[in-house]
Write a structure and sequence with these properties.
The chain is mostly beta strands. The protein has no helices and six strands.
C-alpha cells in the first residue's frame, strides 16, 4: 500500500506586536530607566517609528535588522531601545 500524504495550510502569526499608530510602547534607556510612549508615525513599511513620550517629546527609532529591535535613530549602540507592548 502506498503512503498517503496530507497537506495542511498553516498561517503563522507575528511573534511580537507589529507597529501601528496609537500602539503602546516603552522606551528603555541605556544604563537603566524606562518610560511609556505612544507610536505616532509608522514609516518605511514599519522599519522607522516616531513615538511621543510621557513628557510630550518626539523620539525616532529605526529597526536594526541584525537584532530585529528598534533602536534610537542616530544614537549608535548606546542609545535607547523601543519595546512595543501588547494591546
Amino acid at each position: 500500500m502506498g503512503a498517503r500524504r496530507v497537506a495542511f495550510a498553516v498561517m503563522l502569526a507575528p511573534t511580537r506586536p507589529l507597529p501601528t499608530v496609537g500602539a503602546r510602547a516603552r522606551i528603555v534607556h541605556f544604563g537603566g530607566g524606562a518610560e511609556e510612549a505612544t507610536v505616532v508615525v509608522v514609516a518605511e513599511d514599519g522599519r522607522r517609528l516616531q513615538v511621543r513620550d510621557e513628557a510630550d517629546q518626539l523620539h525616532e527609532f529605526v529597526l536594526n535588522r541584525g537584532t530585529a529591535t528598534f533602536v534610537q535613530a542616530g544614537a549608535g549602540a548606546h542609545g535607547a531601545r523601543l519595546q512595543l507592548l501588547a494591546p
